Amino acid sequence: MRRNEGFRSDRYDVSGRDVDRPNFEAQEVNGVKYKNFSGKSLSEVLHWFPGDLKAEQVILLPDLCPGRSPLPTGCCVEFKESSQSDWRKFALSDVGCGMQVLESGLDWEEFDDRRGDWDEVYRRIKANRNSGRPGDLGSGNHFIDAVSDENERVLFVVHTGSRDEGRDLEGLVGSQGKFDKKFSEVTSWAKSNRTAIAEILQRKFGPLELVLDKPHNLYKRGDGTVIIRKGAVRLDTNDMTVIPSSMDGDMVLVSGTEMMSFALNGMSHGTGRIKSRGESSEDAQSFDFDSLRQRVYIPDGITDMSIRKENPDCYRDLDSCLGLIEGLVRVESRLTPIAYIGQV
């Protein structure tokens, strides 16, 4: 396992780099104001949005990509309820999915001596797969990481969702009260799911302190408006969230600046995919998984084939992502992955 190289502010100074600067100017298309932090041109991504979208404004974040829901992942959308009364149909797919960050009492060397405990966590998580009870990690880009900070303290990052608990929501879109009630129940289940995984970690690695718990598939209503955050966390000024990159790439804890309100207080939940899962699977034919396993401890039960679509080449580099959101966040800590569980 590799060690954390430490935080350097010049890592996300993008002056002179071939990276789009953050765009604090809104572009208006068909009456909708778009604020683009995605690194992609607006013309490239507009077709990812539904044709019947009647939004006031849309925030495009670095992890913007088409997904299973009507809205692409990595965006915040603000509606007036009077203009789009059927907005609930856009608030679907992996409701309440989110991340927890937990601080342990271990340092890098202590964790390295306890790989057997990490294997046991993997076995417990695998036993919970499709069980219908909390503690089910799921698939896709859901994961558990052990990471080390600049002082070689070990933290855990848990990213998981609501599994199939929200499968009935689409049928409730026309029944506002029933939809809202079910949505709240699914969101609570998703948080319980993360907490159950944290408890498994705690039983093997000792007491853990919750640093943050941030869902990133939610909506918020108020004063006749609705904001849907799809693959985006709510981040207020001085509030903190985590932005992961790839399986072996650094992630950061960031806090929001006073400019967050400009972005509807929405922040990316990752650096974003740069290759589709189909492209990733093809490219993985030549990926050096042996080298990856030297850098990051991965239980033997997780095969190279199972993680081919999530290999590190699939995701945007962390520093270029930070360049896109410069001015919106401050980097508080840089975290290096040292162990991974996913695709169980």
Automatic annotation (TrEMBL):
Positions of GMP binding: P244, S245, S246, M247, H269, G270, T271, G272
Q: Does the keyword Cytoplasm apply?
A: no
The entry's keywords: GTP-binding, Ligase, Manganese, Metal-binding, Nucleotide-binding, RNA repair
Q: Which InterPro entries match?
A: RtcB (IPR001233), RtcB-like (IPR052915), RtcB-like_sf (IPR036025)
GO BP of this protein: DNA repair; RNA processing; RNA repair
The organism's superkingdom is given as Bacteria
Judged by the first EC level, this protein's enzyme class is ligase
Q: Where is the active site?
A: H269
Query: EC no.?
Result: 6.5.1.8
Q: List the catalytic activities from the record.
A: a 3'-end 3'-phospho-ribonucleotide-RNA + a 5'-end dephospho-ribonucleoside-RNA + GTP = a ribonucleotidyl-ribonucleotide-RNA + GMP + diphosphate
Q: Which cofactor does it need?
A: Mn(2+)
Single GO MF descriptor: GTP binding
* Protein name from the UniProt record: 3'-phosphate/5'-hydroxy nucleic acid ligase
Q: Which organism is it from?
A: Candidatus Uhrbacteria bacterium CG_4_10_14_0_8_um_filter_58_22
Taxonomically, what lineage is the organism? Bacteria, Candidatus Uhriibacteriota
